[in-house]
Design goal:
Elements: H1 2-42, H2 46-49, H3 64-72, H4 75-106, H5 112-124, H6 131-140, H7 147-171, H8 175-183, H9 188-199, H10 201-217, H11 220-225, H12 234-239, H13 249-269, H14 271-279
Length: 285
């Protein structure tokens, strides 16, 4: 009787594992199929893109879409614009967020909870809420149609998220470490730079990755603040390929693939930092 029960339990566990594996495979296919189809279309000519039934592999592989995208449309300049804006805004936003998150984590003062709620509320509101005031300020400062306008807008939009994410990492660091450093003669700023920051590097890396991806994929601010095609970002440039009379599916698919590659490389390069940041404080001795 006991043996039969054990066999049934072990068989049930195996079935659960099988269903879990099947479910994971379905989710992976569901998530990656749009990327595969975009890559598939990027190597097809326009006739094969509209063939019926659709072909899951290009019969005649062509690089014409990439040549048109990088040659006539100069998409590599667009990618460089996106990288500059996303990278600069990420560095500034994460640097400011480190100081703000450390202060909110360590110091007690009146109105701290109200300030935390206000920071959170600015992130809860949709980006369109800030378009009119930011556009007015950028226009008065003469920053429209410049990368600086996008950098400042992305800092405003990403800073609350970065602060809230970093607060949890600073809370994991015991205050005794700073106190021991100050006993040895370090100033509060020196203990912050030399003791705390090295311990929160994984959290800073994880925050930088999410901030960079958000800035890279942002569309609304880039569409409104930049009217010059040479300074537009990748999402806006790809959307311009949908015209009133024609949709350039081939170059748009090729541009989508080229837009994904920098993010994949960046995340793979920061993979260890991302994993450490996401699991930081999860296991305690």
């Amino acid at each position: 009787m006991q043996l039969s029960v054990k066999r049934n339990v072990s068989q049930f566990i195996k079935e659960i594992g099988l269903f879990r594996t099947i479910g994971i495979i379905i989710v992976i296919i569901w998530s990656l199929f749009p990327i595969y189809w975009m890559a598939n279309n990027s190597f097809k000519d326009r006739v094969e893109q509209f063939s019926s039934p659709p072909s899951f592999f290009p019969h005649n592989i062509t690089l014409g879409n990439y040549i048109q995208l990088l040659g006539e449309m100069k998409f590599h300049h667009i990618l460089m614009n996106s990288f500059i804006v996303a990278f600069v805004s990420t560095v500034i936003a994460v640097s400011i967020a480190c100081l703000a998150a450390y202060s909110l984590s360590r110091f007690r003062f009146k109105g701290k909870r109200i300030l935390l709620c206000w920071i959170l509320m600015t992130r809860v509101f949709p980006p369109v809420t800030f378009v009119i005031p930011l556009y007015t300020m950028m226009g008065q400062a003469g920053l429209l149609n410049t990368r600086t306008a996008l950098v400042l807008a992305y800092i405003v939009f990403n800073l609350p998220f970065a602060i809230w994410l970093l607060i949890s990492f600073f809370n994991e660091i015991p205050t005794e470490m700073e106190e021991s450093a100050m006993v040895d003669g370090a100033t509060p700023f020196q203990s912050f730079i030399k003791v705390i920051i090295p311990l929160v590097i994984p959290g800073i890396g994880a925050t930088a990755i999410f901030t960079f991806i958000t800035a890279w994929n942002e569309f609304l601010f880039a569409l409104i603040f930049i009217q010059t095609p040479d300074l537009s970002t990748a999402p806006v440039s790809l959307s311009s390929m949908i015209t009133e009379y024609l949709v350039l599916w081939g170059p748009m698919s090729a541009g989508g693939i080229l837009s994904i590659i920098p993010m994949i490389v960046f995340v793979l390069f920061m993979q260890k930092t991302l994993i450490k940041g996401l699991t930081m404080g999860a296991v305690k001795g």
